[in-house]
Amino acid sequence: MTFELRDATAGPGGAAPLPVPSLPLEVPSLSLPRTVPELPVLPPEAPARSRRQFAVWTSIVVAAVLVALGTRAFVAELFYVPSGSMLPTLAIGDRILVDRLSSRLHAIHRGDVVVFSHPPLLRANDADLVKRVIGMPGDVISLVDGRVEIDGRPLAEPWLPDPPPQTLPGNLRAPFSLDHPFRVPAGEYYVMGDNRTDSEDSRYFGPIPGRLIVGKVVLVVWPLDYSGWLVVLSIAAVILLVAIAVTATRPLRRDSPGRSDRYPAEVSRAT
Fold it and tell me: How many domains are there within the chain?
């Protein structure tokens, strides 16, 4: 821009106007600098979540171990069948589940398959044995033509193979060998193996005191039969439910702010 100054004292035909140098005026730019916003710092939630998960799983493992130990000591226990004295009911190598609790809460019945500790007169070194209860306390047991009689009546034994083998007396000269009728003492049980021709039982070591009974055999765990599969599926269902419960109780992550909040829009004014 150029401005002209005139002398105020000069007339209309006076001196020429004084020139004034041009002054360039700079107009500032209206554009804004492009800057990258700093990302917000999120709180360190991952380590805390990992610690919580570790504590939850540790509690589950410890609880499972305690339940297993308590179950084995007071409720149930697995045993291995090493011999064929209980054929055909139990085979060699079968894993059986023994109910410890029922023998303490409920009475032993004739026909129950029980596991018991080493009887005093047993010559073998087996720690535990499995046999079937044949005689109850106070029963008079006798053998007539190779069959067991209780109080003078033949005992029905559907667990024996068909045709049933003969039940012979033991080779000891003792009252319990069943060469003659024998009365079971109070508080004791007369046991036999289902494989009568190959079983060392009460005919050889006498009746067993009730305090030696560990528990009743409830099912064969391995090899799996129908009942065994039910147990396995039930255990799998419980484990699945526990896993679902643990997953469902995990704390939810805090909603993260949207992209529009974390990363502000970059704009510039038009020049």
Answer: 1
For residue 51, tell me if it sits in a domain: no
pTM over 0.85: no
Q: Which residues does the annotation mark as catalytic?
A: 85, 131
For residue range 173-210, what is the model confidence (pLDDT) as tens digits? 899 999 999 999 999 999 999 999 999 999 999 999 99
Q: Which among 188, 210, 190 is positioned nearest to 116, based on CA atoms?
A: 210
Domain of residue 216, CATH code: 2.10.109.10
Q: Does residue 220 lie in a domain region?
A: yes
**Considering the domain boundaries, does residue 170 fall inside one?**
yes
Q: Which of 139, 201, 138 is nearest to 168 (CA)?
A: 201
Establish if 188 belongs to a structural domain: yes
